[in-house]
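Structure in, sequence out. Go:
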């Protein structure tokens, strides 16, 4: 039994079905990826998990029990839209939010200073939110979501506005929370982040779950149609190899699309006849490739 389990969950707004009979389970100490284009039903699903809205059909269980108001303090939520007041000081907002989640002010203050120090921004304690950059506002909002050590953490586009250094900082923090037992529902348009952090995923399309399960097993169900080739000298005629559909010249080699996996060996033979081969790899499909194949178009 998962720490978080949805079964047959449906939500309608008037004549519009926002979520249609979806179900999945998230284990304790797992990061579960929820994927979909805007309007697919991700945010509605997250809000139902948080108890902000209730499903019209189906059940949501937390360690085998239904939602209760007493459980509010066990949730942490970072929404895609920034929800902090721009003209209020960081300390005033986050201490107040932590108290709403059950922390006393002294403990909340200790934790806030500890997190600011950990993120390398202790000087933001007394600053107004509007004085911070977009990326640093995101870090403050992340702290607001986790300051009370939630059992369940819902993250929607958590890396929005962050530079690569801070993306890695938050990735490290999220994986540590996972390792400490936090159950995390994670959504992002950046498929590489989903691939790196999540073991199981659910792809939503037009309110329906169209593909879900273990990411590694999902990948095994899709053909490998891409070859990376690096050679000592330029290679000619790869476009003419039977089964090759496209060749892209890279700085140190070639990125080759193939119709079927058997074409990869013909590519290798053609290259080896002309040059020493430094690298030859048949690549598994990326989650981005799988998403496009599954929903029939590029994501935003």
């Amino acid at each position: 039994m998962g720490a978080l389990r949805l079964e047959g969950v449906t939500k309608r707004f008037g004549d519009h079905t926002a979520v249609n009979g979806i179900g999945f389970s998230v284990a304790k100490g797992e990061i579960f990826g929820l994927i979909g284009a805007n309007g697919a039903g991700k945010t509605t699903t997250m809000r139902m998990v948080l108890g902000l809205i209730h499903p019209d059909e189906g059940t949501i269980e937390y360690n085998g029990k239904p939602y209760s108001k007493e459980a509010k303090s066990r949730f942490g939520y970072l929404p895609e839209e920034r929800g902090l007041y721009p003209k209020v000081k960081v300390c005033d907002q986050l201490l107040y939010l932590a108290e709403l989640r059950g922390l006393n002010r002294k403990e909340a203050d200790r934790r806030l200073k500890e997190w600011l120090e950990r993120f390398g921004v202790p000087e933001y304690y007394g600053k107004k939110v509007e004085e911070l950059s977009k990326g640093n506002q995101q870090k403050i909002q992340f702290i607001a979501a986790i300051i009370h050590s939630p059992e369940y953490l819902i993250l929607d586009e958590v890396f929005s506005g962050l530079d690569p250094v801070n993306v890695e900082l938050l990735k490290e923090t999220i994986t540590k929370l996972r390792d400490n037992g936090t159950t995390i529902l994670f959504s992002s348009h950046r498929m590489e982040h989903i691939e790196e952090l999540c073991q199981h995923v659910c792809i939503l399309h037009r309110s329906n779950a169209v593909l879900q399960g273990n990411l590694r097993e999902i990948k095994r169900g899709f053909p490998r149609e891409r070859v990376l080739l690096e050679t000592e000298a330029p290679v000619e005629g790869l476009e003419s190899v039977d089964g090759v559909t496209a060749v892209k010249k890279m700085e140190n080699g070639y990125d080759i699309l193939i119709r079927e996996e058997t074409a990869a060996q013909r590519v290798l033979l053609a290259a080896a006849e002309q040059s020493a081969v430094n690298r030859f790899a048949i690549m598994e499909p990326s989650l981005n490739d799988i998403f496009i194949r599954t929903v029939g178009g590029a994501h935003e």
